[in-house]
Design goal:
The complex is a heterodimer of chains A (105) and B (134). Chain A has 105 residues and is mainly alpha-helical. Chain A contains three helices and two strands. The termini of chain A are far apart. About 11% of the residues of chain A have low confidence. Chain B has a five-stranded parallel beta sheet with strand order 2-1-3-4-5, with helices on both faces. Chain B is built from five helices and five strands; from the N terminus they run βαβαβαβαβα. The relative contact order of chain B is 0.15. Chain B has one domain: Response regulator (Rossmann fold, 3-Layer(aba) Sandwich), CATH 3.40.50.2300. Helix content of chain B is 49%, strand content 21%. Chain B is an alpha/beta fold and 134 residues long. Classes of the chains: A mainly alpha (105), B alpha/beta (134). The interface between A and B is medium-sized, with 10 and 15 residues.
């Protein structure tokens, strides 16, 4: 199978290019069959393949998936959101004096 | 109105001067005039060993020795020690940890004077019950 990234031919039904690590096909998460990289749906069970293929691009250690670059303000916003989420999580675990009284009585 | 003096003694362990003074005044107002103050858990243990107060008001977050360690130490010295946690820690997990370590009561900061009075009344009732048994 020809690699869509480096054009190297990889023999056999491989999921990733042996030369550059790019995904050679789209793995169906439902039935486990391998489709072509350009397939949108699994030919065996009809499941959508786009997400599966993208996951492989991003998750394979040797893959060619892009690493998203964040701007400083985006990082700050993400950290701020994470902080809020943590505060909300902590607040949900907090108890009032009445709750405490019932624990100690 | 100031209550008549009671023959009970108290130890206040808190690193915050404001909290120490507040608790001292509330105790004195309730008639407990024998009040000792300590600024951290380690000093609290020393004072507890030396004077064996009837009740301890113990903060949780303090330098050197925190409230949980101090509570465990006090309870190992005297399992009957009457300890009221006075802290702003309100996570259930922490509250349960203090309960398991032997805290008798738990007063969440900031507290209203009325809440303090209610807790002190429980403490005094418990002390009176113990005296009756003796």
């Amino acid at each position: 199978m020809e690699c869509p990234n480096c054009k190297t031919n990889t023999e056999g039904a491989k999921r990733f290019c042996t030369a550059c690590g790019a995904a050679l096909g789209a793995l169906c998460k439902r039935c486990g069959k391998m489709g072509k990289a350009e397939d949108k749906y699994c030919g065996d069970c009809g499941n959508a393949l786009v997400a599966s293929a993208n996951e492989h691009l991003f998750s394979h250690p040797g893959g060619t998936g892009e690493v998203k670059q964040y701007a400083l303000d985006e990082i700050e916003e993400l950290l701020s959101l994470r902080k809020i989420a943590r505060q909300e999580e902590a607040a949900s675990k907090q108890v009032t004096q009445n709750d405490i009284d019932s624990i100690f009585n | 109105m100031k209550a008549p003096p009671l023959a009970y003694s108290a130890l206040v362990v808190d690193d915050s001067p404001h909290s120490r003074i507040l608790l001292l005044r509330l105790l004195q107002r309730s008639g407990i005039t024998q009040v000792e103050l300590a600024v951290n858990g380690a000093e609290g243990i020393q004072r507890y060993k030396a004077s064996k107060p009837d009740m301890v008001f113990l903060d949780a977050i303090m330098p050197e020795m925190d409230g949980l360690a101090a509570l465990r130490e006090i309870k190992s010295i005297d399992s009957e020690a009457l300890v009221v946690m006075t802290t702003s820690l309100s996570e259930k997990e922490k509250v349960l940890e203090f309960k398991e370590a032997g805290a008798n009561y738990y007063l969440l900061k900031p507290f209203e004077n009325q809440k303090f009075d209610q807790t002190l009344l429980k403490v005094l009732t418990l002390l009176a019950q113990r005296l009756k048994k003796e």
